[in-house]
Design brief:
5-stranded mixed β-sheet, 5-stranded antiparallel β-sheet
Length: 585
């Protein structure tokens, strides 16, 4: 009996689950007293009856308290659980009132009546297009033009219909439904194009597949370009577009003497910071080990000042955007020494490749210099001395480029190895090093592709450095010298990113309006700097003020009331005249 009572409680909760789920607590009233401790007090592992355990698990999703009442006080449940013993009389029906008529039944009846009276052969989507075309002025003009026939010259056609000139021979009016079609494709008016573009972009299959699908059923002038822009403007698709390929290698102006350009970076090995300084000309490395990772700008300044006092102050100092190198105190230190501070683009370590390569090489030396879990400075000093004597890419070693000779290390070296006649000629080593660098650049450029440059005012998307999603919109506000840009987001923040982490963005969805004329959809190459204006003499200025050019030659003004014209960047092709005898299919 107790199993049936528990089953009735679980069944009641399941039937009323839409009202019970989410409540902080409710009360379960039952007249079966042995069920109270099972529901309120017993833990799951105390229930030996498997059926009671299954029912308790079903009720586990609800928060309730069971309460016992005598059967004579549980009148509502007791009355509803009994079967009637007599037939319904007329007085019972009058006492109950009018029969209920749920709103759901009424709605289904209306829908059924409407469907029964509607023509099953009509397509509601086509009817919607037909109704919108009946009130569209351009579609009405197009319909009348198709009936009357197109003129022989495009200049004699209405300006609103000139975009249909290239397909005028294929436009017709269907006899069955009186719709303007282009072969099997329905001509769509302006008001419905944005909705159809959204439906097409729901495929999330790219511009090519979307164009193939659209060419089966719909048409309007410029539909292919609109589809391309719509697929690029899809929020879900543009978040997961692949990362851009690397650009071709762009070498910086090389250093002409040792310690003219210095690259520096902080590396972390086994919970300690290591400052790596490398010379751009010779590749001479210098490493400073710190006790922990709590390295401040003042500490770095002291060690770099000591290094400068030994080898001389450089002209340029390359670093990343770490907090130590970006501190105002460090910038003042470089300005005081007359050094130009240069930084790499954020999250693009390749722009400071010399320091990054030296970091990876020095990390190998540092890891090999640990003895019994502690950093052995004497062991590391011997290792870095051997590295300074090793040739670089078939050329001279860092020591030869700095001192014009090798330095003595822990390896045995005869006095002849230091004599000038046994040293390789400098031009031979330089030619070998140059050839090796050219091969490396050629190998790197095999998997690169040049990317179009942006200009100020372009709308772009910023790629997240961790998730690799293109989710942050912005606008270009400044163009850097080394393929880097400053981007302003809608929140007002300024980001600096390399061109590889930026892709063009369409500011609005196609078909909903015109894009800002100051912002082209496609990135354009950076324009050449304009020539400096020459101030004419006073007499020529007076003559220029007296003589006004014709109205059609006046330059465009910045009046906001006049819309700026957007010209095509494609070169004009000469007009070609074809005669009927030369036409080919």
């Amino acid at each position: 009996m107790i199993e049936l009572e528990c089953l009735s409680a679980a069944w009641a909760m399941h039937k009323c689950r839409q009202f019970l789920e989410g409540l902080s607590s409710f009360e379960l009233v039952t007249d079966h007293k042995p069920l109270i401790p099972i529901l309120n007090s017993y833990a799951m592992n105390k229930l030996d009856n498997p059926r009671l355990l299954r029912l308790r698990l079903k009720m586990q999703r609800y928060s309730f308290v069971a309460r016992w009442v005598p059967g004579k006080q549980n009148a509502d449940a007791d009355a509803l659980s009994r079967a009637p013993v007599d037939h319904v009389t007329t007085s019972d029906e009058l006492g109950e009132g009018l029969p209920s008529f749920p709103a759901k039944i009424a709605m289904m009846s209306l829908i059924g009546a409407e469907l029964s009276t509607a023509d099953p052969t009509l397509d509601p989507v086509l009817e919607k297009i037909k109704c919108a075309a009946a009130i569209d002025p351009i579609m009405l003009k197009l319909r009348n033009q198709i009936v009357a026939g197109f003129p022989n010259d495009k200049c004699n056609l209405d300006i609103d219909l000139r975009r249909y000139w290239c397909v005028k021979d294929r436009l017709t009016i269907d006899e069955s439904d009186d719709m303007i079609v282009l072969g099997p494709r329905v001509v769509i008016q302006q008001s419905l194009r944005a909705a159809i573009l959204r439906d097409l972009s729901a495929m999330h299959q790219g511009a090519t597949k979307t164009r193939q699908r659209a060419r089966l059923s719909v048409y309007w002038p410029g539909i292919d370009n609109h589809i391309v822009n719509a697929t690029r403007n899809c929020d879900e698709c543009r978040k997961h577009i692949p990362s851009l390929p690397p650009e071709p290698f762009r070498p910086r102006p090389p250093a002409t003497r040792p310690f003219e350009q210095i690259h520096a970076d902080l590396g972390k090995v086994n919970g300690r910071h290591f400052l790596v300084i490398v010379d751009s000309f010779s590749g001479w490395p210098h490493v400073v080990a710190f006790r922990d990772i709590k390295t401040s700008a003042r500490t770095i300044i002291g060690h770099i000042r000591t290094f400068f006092s030994s080898v001389g102050a450089p002209v340029a100092f390359w670093s990343d955007n770490g907090p130590q190198f970006g501190a105002a105190e460090f910038r003042r230190f470089l300005a005081d020494w007359g050094i130009i501070p240069l930084t790499s683009s954020p999250y693009y370590a390749k722009s400071n490749g010399r320091a990054e390569a030296a970091i990876n090489t020095m990390k190998t030396l540092i890891r090999g210099s640990y003895t019994s879990g502690a950093f052995d400075e004497a062991k590391f000093a011997k290792s870095i001395l051997l590295f300074r004597n090793a040739p670089r890419s078939g050329g001279a070693s860092p020591a030869q480029l700095v001192f014009n000779r090798p330095v003595r290390d822990c390896l045995p070296a005869h006095r002849r190895s230091f004599a000038p006649e046994w040293q390789k000629a400098a031009d031979t080593l330089e030619k070998r090093a140059r050839r090796s660098k050219e091969l490396q650049i050629a190998h790197y450029n095999k998997r690169t592709r040049p990317l179009a440059a942006f200009v100020v005012g372009n709308y772009v998307l910023i790629q997240h450095p961790v998730s690799k999603q293109w989710a942050t919109p912005g606008i270009i506000v400044e163009v850097g010298r080394h393929r880097d840009y400053l981007i302003k987001t809608p929140a007002g923040r300024i980001f600096r990113r390399n061109r590889r982490f930026l892709c063009p963005r369409i500011p609005i969805f196609p078909g909903t309006g015109s894009a800002p004329t100051a912002t082209p959809i496609q990135p354009e190459p950076a324009p050449a700097p304009p020539p400096e204006p020459v101030q004419p003499p006073a007499e020529q200025q007076q003559q220029q003020q007296d003589v006004q050019p014709p109205a059609d030659q006046l330059p465009p003004t910045n009046d906001p009331a006049l819309p700026a014209l957007r010209r095509s960047t494609r070169p004009r092709q000469p007009r070609r005249h074809f005669f009927p005898t030369d036409w080919t299919q």
